[in-house]
Amino acid sequence: MTLPMVVPAPDLPARVRIHEVGARDGLQNEKATVPTAVKAEFIRRLADAGLTTIEATSFVHPKWVPQLADAEELFPLVSDLPARLPVLVPNGRGLDRALALGARQVAVFASATESFAKANLNRTLDESLGVFEPVVRRAKDEGAHVRGYVSMCFGDPWEGAVPLHQVVRVCGALLDMGCDELSLGDTIGVATPGHVLELLASLNEQRVPTNVLGVHFHDTYGQALANTLAALQHGVTTVDASAGGLGGCPFARSATGNLATEDLVWMLQGLGIETGVDLAALVATSTWMAERLGRPSPSRTVRALSHKDAQAAQPPQEK
Ligand code: HMG
Ligand code: MG
After folding, report:
1. CB-based contact 104:143 (threshold 8 Å)
2. How far is it, in rounded angstroms, from Cα 271 to Cα 267?
């Protein structure tokens, strides 16, 4: 398989941890129900491809996200994998369900804006933080690792530009509750690299260290990879991505897929940055999943590499 030429660039981390969200963020927006067995095989294949953090599902209300209503059936099918398998929990009920199945990594998901807190969680921003506080405390008491998502860090479909101080406030609140790491969500994909650097610097100024920060870019405007590079230059080493570029958010209509994991891995390999991911196995997984979903992957790398593979498999044409 074609691989990029390795040419390191200065001041970048030696290793990046990819937080794979294809099975959760990627699938949550799919209209047709994906069978539980297909989801389980998807997650197994992602682990086989070398991904070590694979967000598996959400313990949210099944009426709100019907695609993930099978969380109870799915989680035990994959819980033997050596990968970390974080799951989303919106409240105490979600945490009960996750802990009952032995989940060791959970994520609460806050918003930097009032409008998305209401659309996504049916609560005001402060009410949602009030719900998360005992969830985070209990999860920590149970020995779980807790991620805190912050959505709409760069723009909001109802409110437009999001002031930095709103993002900083929500990040601080989640860390004060005891979250181990944060993920800065560009839910509708409007961020650009300067904005990313400005937010990271503002967070550092307010004593939020870079080593607790991950980035979560959706690729609506084609900026996700550029934004990721900016974050890496700032020292971020946790990057969220979705195999094949699957995704969207059912509660923010302008959200499209996440940064495709393959596009990320291609860039990181070219920069000589370790990820532990086997790109050929990952492309094969996303091609397999695209066949299950009945449409091609939007990832440029998946398309380029699966096209080359198909060409290589053709017998030479007679002249
Ligand atoms: P609500 O309707 O306000 O719930 O929804 P409630 O607290 O009023 O409870 C109503 C009923 O739901 C009760 O049952 C509860 O027990 C039940 P009843 O007593 O009437 O029989 N219930 C539950 N059942 C199962 N599991 C639960 C649960 N919670 C309550 N966890 C709620 C509030 C938070 C539940 C709802 O709004 C919800 O599930 N929202 C989830 C939205 C979601 O999943 N969004 C997508 C993920 S976020 C995202 O994609 C962004 C991200 O990728 C980052 C980025 O890109 O920015 C992370
Ligand atoms: Mg997302």
Report:
1. yes
2. 6
Task: Indicate if ligand 1 lies below 6 Å from the C-beta of 93.
Answer: yes
For the chain, give every domain's residue range.
17-308
CB 267 within 8 A of CB 255: no
For residue 221, which of 258, 175, 189, 195 has the smallest C-alpha distance? Answer: 189
Residue 1, pLDDT score: 77
Nearest to 42 by CA among 12, 20, 10: 20
On the 0-12 / 13-18 / 19+ scale of CB atoms within 10 A, 187 is buried
CATH of segment(s) 17-308: 3.20.20.70
Q: Minimum-distance ligand to the CA of 258?
A: 2
* Residue 241, SS3 per DSSP: strand
219 lines ligand 1 (CB under 6 A): no
In this prediction the pTM is 0.96
Indicate whether residue 249 lines ligand 1 (CB < 6 A).
yes
249 is catalytic: yes
Residue 2 CA, ligand 2 centroid: distance in Å: 30
Among the residues of 122-242, which ranges form H helices? Answer: 125-141, 164-177, 193-205, 224-234
pLDDT in tens, 110-133: 999 999 999 999 999 999 999 999
